[in-house]
Design a protein that fits this description.
mainly alpha, 198 residues, 6 helices, single chain, two-stranded antiparallel ribbon
Amino acid sequence: MKTNQIFSILIILAALQFLFLLHISEFLYPNYSVSNNYISDLGATCREGVCRFYQPSSIIFNISVSLLGILLMISSYYSNKLSLGKIFTILIFITGLGSLGVGLFPENYGTLHKLSALTTFIPASLLGLFGSRVIKHISLKIISIIMSLISITSLILFAVEKDLGLGVGGIERLIVYPILFWALIFGGYIYGYYEYIR
């Protein structure tokens, strides 16, 4: 299998399994609100010093986000081999490291969890911008940049506690979903066109 195909399969699998298992976790969590609950509440829900673990949501989510991290870190090795850009490769590795941290350190770990989430969100929101550099198709390049800008804007709004009426969970998903969708698009592009874009 070619290096570009391995890279593509890794990031597509990372995004797909997380999207699928995220929704499974939401379905199994009692009275979960996509608007009012943080995504990480699926791993552990902590309010006013009290933490609750709703199973099987907790174990599914924590394993899935950890697997997301592991697959992204592995994909960074192949990103480097493909010369997709040093900054891009570093960003995808740090995103993976942060995701793994989110899975290993749920909300009940306090500061460690928050640091892991930031380590995921900040570099992840930039992936579309730096990934767009290797995309030759103008329409996909524009989509890649737009996805990244949506994520960056949502991250800023999330940080200043402005949810635009979507709730904390809603604005958080506007950080995460565009990057997951971008990963599927970018992975497919690199799989099929890499030999033509070098």
